[in-house]
Specification:
mainly beta; 8-stranded antiparallel β-sheet; 8 strands; 0% helix
């Protein structure tokens, strides 16, 4: 479980709600619905109305919502945590050597551009 990352592009959003670090964030600065499209991964916890830096390109550390196999594609759960892709939007892929055995772990992911 990695705590390193190599962000290439970090943008900021105004939080529409309290946001937790290392979780996916919507373009509107909110907590995403399960399987939703996201802007990227928030780098810090912030209160509603505060500016949050969001990694949108490169690699980022994200909290897991369940076990995730090596090299798996991931989507978001309803809390913004990474889970194995089911029927949602592909947001990222686990970086080489990363694996999660349970929820609440932190893994490095390669962020993938979304179309929506």
């Amino acid at each position: 479980m990695s705590r390193q990352s190599t962000p290439i592009l970090t943008l900021s959003v105004i939080a529409a709600a309290a946001l937790t670090a290392d979780r996916f964030v919507t373009p509107a600065g909110g907590v995403p619905a399960a399987g939703a499209s996201c802007l990227g991964v928030g780098r810090s916890s912030v209160a509603s109305g505060a500016r949050q830096p969001v990694d949108v390109l490169g690699t980022s550390v994200v909290e897991t919502g369940a076990a995730i196999a090596a090299n798996a594609l991931v989507e978001t759960d309803a809390s913004g945590r990474a889970v194995t892709l089911a029927a949602g939007t592909v947001l990222a892929r686990l970086a080489p050597g990363e694996v999660a055995t349970a929820a609440g772990q932190f893994v490095e992911v390669i962020l993938l551009p979304t179309r929506s």
